[in-house]
Amino acid sequence: xxxxxxxxxxxxxxxxxxxxxxxxxxxxxxxxxxxxxxxxxxxxxxxxxxxxxxxxxxxxxxxxxxxxxxxxxxxxxxxxxxxxxxxxxxxxxxxxxxxxxxxxxxxxxxxxxxxxxxxxxxxxxxxxxxxxxxxxxxxxxxxxxxxxxxxxxxxxxxxxxxxxxxxxxxxxxxxxxxxxxxxxxxxxxxxxxxxxxxxxxxxxxxxxxxxxxxxxxxxxxxxxxxxxxxxxxxxxxxxxxxxxxxxxxxxxxxxxxxxxxxxxxxxxxxxxxxxxxxxxxxxxxxxxxxxxxxxxxxxxxxxxxxxxxxxxxxxxxxxxxxxxxxxxxxxxxxxxxxxxxxxxxxxxxxxxxxxxxxxxxxxxxxxxx
Length: 369
Description:
Strand content: 5-15%
Number of strands: 6
């Protein structure tokens, strides 16, 4: 099947007109590949060559044999789908697959069954969020293995993720937490600037550490998300503009370390946690919880799922719908109670308004008599 495109495979016609294929990668030995791309002999030789070429970056890859899970992982790491992932996603996926390769790499990938994967999820994966990442990573490897003729079916089909009790483990800041942080860190401080960028843009920490004044144009903050590579134009609301204007900065990024260097995402997370501790914010709240708080505020303002996603950059609208669903439930419950009691419930506070129902007025009148 000559249309099959494989990385590091080079083809040419010899002096007799026969088409030849070689595995060629800079710094590694050139390997001739027998037969045609897609044939059993060709794919076995290709897997062996690729596993050998990947040895410097895979732990124990010198033991990799053709047709094994380790060989499939090696092919995936060299694939276009893996290269197209965002940087942080690649890191997470590499950690997951390196562990899989270490524990099961010597097993033939053709022998991997539905029941084996379910056992891994139940016995090895601790949280639904981690299970979702594991399944996504394994499905990507299986897809590459099928394309490379290492197996013909996908054993992950039909496997359900572990039931989640929370969307992704990051708790949402409520208004009390927000007020507590604002009281502890006044406008003009680095902590308040970091807080404002997180809350009023709804972006991840990996994005706000790269923001600078050069990204503000005509009242909009221009962002290209690191995780998704999604370009966004977010309106600069007055609260954030006030915080930025009051915080001195002579660097390309709004936020810098004490030494004047840009933060890494992990370094910023640790630094921001210390600022939360100073404000008395609970230890189970993180920078990501402010991104979720922004989504909640947008939902409570009546924004649609697509409007919220236009700011947050979410590609999975089901996740955004969780915020609007919770707000809609609260609003509908308040309206239901209002119809039953005649009392105007404040959906934001859950408390009855000062309006007195006709029934209550009659009771008060009878008591007065």
